[in-house]
Amino acid sequence: MVRWLFIILLLLGFALPPAQAEENAEPSNYCHSPESWAEWDQLLAQHPHDQGLQTLHALRLGICLKVDRGKLTLDEGTAIFEEARAALLAQQQAAKRRAALREKPQF
Q1: Helices marked H in 1-73
Q2: Distances from the Cα of 42 to the Cαs of 53, 59, 74, 87, in angstroms?
Q3: pTM of the model
Q4: Is the CB of residue 56 less than 8 Å from the CB of residue 85?
Q5: How many CA atoms does the CB half-sphere of 47 hold within 13 Å?
Q6: Per residue in 65-75, pLDDT tens?
């Protein structure tokens, strides 16, 4: 399960917009992308009990709502999401390392 979450989170990192590709370019708002929502729907259907994925999805929904209402800028929303995704990835990697240590034979 941890391995799948790690893979999913890595893939989501590639599916999300960079903070800003070019200095003067308008950043992409993936909140308005049907393709992006379809990808999320597919991931959630494949992993309905993955709490990390559910957490990120709920955060994304809230961020999109706040961006649409003008309460957050797109850059702020992207930064919040990326921080949460990175923290979740770090937690999953730490859990994976702890599990590997438990599996090592004790002398």
Answers
A1: 2-15, 34-46, 51-68
A2: 12, 17, 24, 23
A3: 0.71
A4: yes
A5: 20
A6: 999 999 999 99
